[in-house]
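User: Please run a holo structure prediction.
Assistant: Happy to. Please share the sequence and the ligand.
User: Here you go; the ligand is copper (II) ion.
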Amino acid sequence: MPSRRAVMISALMASLVPAARAQIPPAGTSAERSASRTILRLQNTTIDVNGKAASVYAIRQPNGTAGIITDVGKPFRVRVENKISEPSLIHWHGLTPPWQQDGVPGVSGPPIPPGGSAEYDFPLRFGGTFWMHSHQGLQEQQLMAAPLIIRDQRDRPGQQEIVIMLADFSFTPPQQIFEQLKKPKPMASMGSPGGAAAAAAPDLNDVKYDAFLANDRTLADPEIAKVEPGAPVLLRIINSSSMSAYHIDLGDLVGDLIAVDGFQVKPILGRYFPVAVAQRLDIRVTIPRDTGAHLVLAVLEGSRNRTGIVLAAGSARIPRIPEMAATPSAALTLGLEGRLRAAKPLEVRKADRVHTLNLTGDMAAYSWSINGVVWNKDVPPLPIATGERVELVLVNQTLMPHPMHLHGHEFQVVEIDGARFSGAVRDTVLVPPGRRVVIAFDANNPGWWAFHCHLLYHLDAGMFTTLKYV
Ligand SMILES: [Cu+2]
């Protein structure tokens, strides 16, 4: 760990490098700004995956910290420095910045060129478990992602918290994975309108991964987190996978699910929780009083593959953990989503505007779309207006589940298959094959915003659109 002085000097040095673009000029003198600014470097790194070296990306502060832990009420004042050899841009997943700072190339602004940097400065409206990831090309598949934790009044002083970042990993370069997905397959087209596809079995895990990671490690050499016997621990679980959903298996522990995507829900006690791509779960567990090793595992849906970490209380012996679960995890359902209730729901209000978005596609051609339109930059944005309550009706007409993410706004899940309820406030919702989910949000952050499937190759293949009110 470098000394505080070394960190200060490196911050000072960084402030001498001209920014490639300064989006919003921050207030204060330049000395004040550099003193309170966090530097994030997009960089190359090497990790060990089951004994083999893997070249991946990382988002790190100069002292090596991955991502950011900050406090609500502080400004999000960050300089991103691009130290890799291609353009990149980082999206602050779940935050509500001014739209030009949202980090989506071609929508919010241009990517940061190699060697360049970009400045970010906006207030943090709420706390919770968020994350950051590249929205450029397929960089997310190479682990260009990191935690973004905002502590708030829900967090107890002195509580132990453990961040668990889940990721899927392949030694095959992402561009090659994408080419293989697009190769013609002897399969029926999935684009049948009217949800007729729903009766068939869901189609899961179309990319076959070499490993599943928790905090960059596999179960052959998992992270071992020291915990106090009898103490409460907050697990902040982030599914940063490109394509993979899991069931979190708490094993011999039980936990209270207290927040999803950073937003508080009425607590749900359990030991088995689904987490779709890009979603987060905050789970409070209490470690038993005896010495022991407790596993927190993530089992890939429709598979026996798993990853996870070990919570070691006292001088516990760490068991060897097989990489395969005894029984496969089921496909994710809306079972939990339908039971979630927001602790602070949106004000009850009639929608001023409703957009129906059919999630469409053709598995054989690996073409993915919204209302049959494959995204390109000439697709007109969905109109909305400042101050409106907007509802998006999401109807999945394909055989694959789609975790749908809205940028720049938190939304509430208000309906599943015709049944209205006061569901979770969140930023990413799973729409399984043949299902209909309605989300509501307030148009309170004018700009040009992305709305898309968070499965990386679906997003890249066109299941993406925008909303605009500026
Ligand atoms: Cu999708």
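The longest strand covers residues 38-49.
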